[in-house]
From TrEMBL:
Superkingdom per UniProt: Bacteria
Residue ranges constituting the DUF4179 domain according to the UniProt record: 44-132
Record keywords, A-Z: Membrane, Transmembrane, Transmembrane helix
Organism whose genome encodes this protein: Lysinibacillus pakistanensis
The protein's name in its UniProt record: DUF4179 domain-containing protein
Pfam families: DUF4179, DUF5643
Segments forming domain DUF5643: 223-339
Transmembrane intervals: 49-71
Length: 342
């Protein structure tokens, strides 16, 4: 096996120009993916996480070879999250709190490198990179198995993978595992992608298999009880889970069963909020889980760590009424919600 990892050593990341997304690419990133993981005592759950695995037709496969120590020799592997920090402040403290993974595997001309991972108690974020002998699409998609967390009863997630130079790509993957009980203090992670898309008609198959453990970030839980009801939908905000890197907003929402006769899929989420000092935060939705066919859901959303001087945060929940499968949708805003910060 011959790999040009020396090319990574000479890569000048300071002079890499970010690529602008086309309208079509932005739409793909915003695409909502419905996914169900089948395990013992399977619950129904949904959604709202960007681009996940896509099914396609394969080519020749070769056996992967692992080089766990190679990542430490590649300076580029040490700052993947900082590339995305230019576009999303959520990741500005990622490297400070991440667990170093440092695993590299090569198969069929593609080296996949897992750099770091963070588990905040709700979602798991992983930084990774690709080097390919074959030019892939500017935003390659995975085919096959996405990330799995041992002990979870359901899972949803997606990834962002972007080209930064010839045949080199950086990515962040995010998943939300659901557990029957409280989240464990340490999660055991498996990731076994089976192929990457060259274009819509061609993929490169391979054999990559990563296994690692990530400890949960220490934090504190603030219980809250704020409720808003509009358009036969009730949203109840129950807790703020705070750690040094992020803040997770836990909430539930219920839908009038009569409303589901007209709109079989109803979702509540919010994209931006601000604190009482005027600081704005981008929101990352963590999906939602329903055990009663869409009448009630448990959900959460993550923002960067709230400024220490903040006394409250305010946002506007948005209801998405959908007929499903692109058949039609309506969007309505709920009343603003203000949550106290202690």
């Amino acid at each position: 096996m011959t790999k040009s990892y020396k090319d990574w050593l000479s890569l000048d990341i300071e002079n890499i120009e970010p690529l602008e997304l086309s309208s079509q690419q932005k739409a793909k990133l915003k695409q909502r993916v419905f996914k169900q993981t089948v395990k013992k005592r399977v619950p129904k759950w949904v959604r709202h996480l960007s681009a996940a695995a896509i099914i396609g037709i394969g080519t020749v496969t070769t056996v992967a070879t692992a080089f766990p120590t190679l990542a430490s020799q590649i300076p580029f592997m040490k700052n993947i999250a900082s590339y995305f920090n230019n576009k999303d402040t959520m990741f500005e403290n990622f490297d400070s709190y991440a667990t170093e993974i440092g695993q590299v595997q090569t198969s069929n001309g593609i080296s996949m490198m897992i750099e770091n991972a963070v588990f905040d108690g709700t979602s798991l974020t992983i930084s990774f990179a690709l080097e390919s002998d074959t030019e892939l699409s500017p935003h390659p998609f995975f085919q096959g198995n996405f990330i799995d967390v041992k002990g979870s009863v359901a899972m949803g997630g997606g990834s962002r993978l972007e080209k930064i130079s010839d045949n080199k790509y950086v990515g962040l993957a995010n998943v939300t595992p659901y557990f029957d009980k409280e989240a464990p203090e340490e999660v055991e992670v498996s990731w076994t992608p089976q192929a990457f898309y060259v274009n819509t008609d061609k993929i490169v198959k391979g054999d990559w298999a990563f296994h690692f453990k990530v400890s949960k970030l220490a934090g504190e839980l603030q219980l809250i009880n704020e409720t808003v009801t509009n358009y036969d939908v009730t949203a109840r905000f129950t807790a703020l889970e705070k750690n040094d890197m992020s803040t997770i907003i836990h909430f539930e929402y219920e839908v009038d069963p009569e409303l589901l006769k007209k709109w079989p899929e109803v979702t509540v989420q919010f994209d931006e909020l601000q604190d009482n000092a005027g600081n704005k935060y981008t929101v990352h939705g963590n999906g939602a889980r329903s055990l009663d066919n869409g009448i009630s859901y448990k959900s959460s959303a993550t923002i960067q760590s709230i400024h220490s001087s903040a006394k409250s945060i305010t946002f506007v929940p948005v209801i998405y009424f959908s007929l499903g499968s692109g058949k039609g949708m309506e969007i309505k805003e709920m009343d603003p919600v203000t949550l106290p910060i202690k």
